[in-house]
Fold this sequence. Notes:
With 133 residues, the chain is of the alpha+beta class. It has helices at residues 20-44, 80-92, 101-110, 114-129, and strands at 2-6, 9-13, 51-54, 61-63, 69-72.
Amino acid sequence: MDFWIFGRRRIKRTPRKQTAEIDELMKQAKKVIPERVAFFAPLVGVVPGRIAIRCQKTRWGSCSAKGNLNFNCLLMLAPPEVMDSVVVHELCHLKQMNHSKKFYDEVLRVMPDYRTRQKWLKEHGAELLKHAY
C-alpha cells in the first residue's frame, strides 16, 4: 500500500487487483475501440489525439481539451452499437466541449438512434460497472 502525504493529511491508497477478466477486456478494447474511433472520426469530421483505455468505476469515456480520448474497457461487455454511441459521443466533444443543443445535434447527425443506444446504457450500465476492480 502507498501512503501519500498532501499537506498534513495522509491518504491511504489501496492497490487495485487486476483480474484475468479485466486483462482480457483491456486486450480486446485496445484493439476494437481504436478501430471504431477510426471509423467514426471522419463521419464526425475530427482528428482525435491519443486514445487511452482504462478500467473505470464510473465513466464510459472522456475527452480532454487536447483532443485525447479515454474509454472504459468495460464497454466491451456492452452491445457493439452501445459502444459505438460512446465513441461518437466522445468524438463529438472534439467539436463541442459541452452538452449543449449543438453538441447533441452533432451526435444525432452522425447517429440518429443515439438516444435508444444511450437508454440501454442507462438501464444496464450499472451492472456492467460492477466488473470494475
